[in-house]
Amino acid sequence: MFKLSYVELVTGIKAAKLRELISLGILTAEDRDGVTYISAAGIESYLMSEGRFVPDVFKTSGIKVLIVDDEPNMLNSLKRLFQRFPQITVNTAANAFEMGHSLKILVPDIIILDYSMPGMNGLEILQSLNGEGYLEKVRVIVYTARLPEELEPVVAQFSNVQVLAKSADFKELLITVEKMLNKTRETA
């Protein structure tokens, strides 16, 4: 879901026209706290039907990954890893504040979340995501330097969350992402 103002900025379609398309049922939208959010699928479909260019951010066939880690080297390594796959759109955040901002623009399919960060730790972030309803639609991999056995009981209370040690190689991370996405497809 994208803010109406963001859709207007990226597509050049005026807000009044977007509201008209919503009222006609051409675009699917929802209001949250006085802000209108429009579904990516609707935007993609409308732009395609008009023969207009569809920006990558609105393409729904790809996989959207958000990486949240306060360590710049890890953040950049993970970003480069996922960018090797053309079907994956990667966003990054160095802390909970940046993650919150990113989530207002684009809801990812998977969040790769560092557990130990200044400000809000992984548990606090998971509680916030759960409270806002994100964990119903987003899968989270808590990617941590701590032993997974320590955190598994802590994150077991949340649906769609799995723990993976940073000591695991990137191949194991990619396999975990694929398994989580397959699980999502099976339940859809």
Structural description of this entry:
- The strands form 2 sheets. This protein has a 5-stranded parallel beta sheet with strand order 5-4-6-7-8. A 3-stranded antiparallel beta sheet has the order 1-3-2.
- The chain has helices at residues 4-11, 15-23, 40-49, 72-83, 96-105, 122-131, 148-155, 170-187; strands spanning 2-3, 29-32, 35-38, 63-68, 88-93, 110-114, 139-144, 161-165.
- It is built from 8 helices and 8 strands.
- Helix content is 45%, strand content 20%.
- The protein has 188 residues and is of the alpha/beta class.
- The longest helix has 18 residues, at 170-187.
- It is elongated and about 50 Å long.
Features:
three-stranded antiparallel beta sheet, 8 strands, elongated, 188 residues, 8 helices, alpha/beta
In terms of topology, how is this protein built?
Layout: E1 2-3, H1 4-11, H2 15-23, E2 29-32, E3 35-38, H3 40-49, E4 63-68, H4 72-83, E5 88-93, H5 96-105, E6 110-114, H6 122-131, E7 139-144, H7 148-155, E8 161-165, H8 170-187
Parallel strand pairs: 4-5, 4-6, 6-7, 7-8
Antiparallel strand pairs: 1-3, 2-3
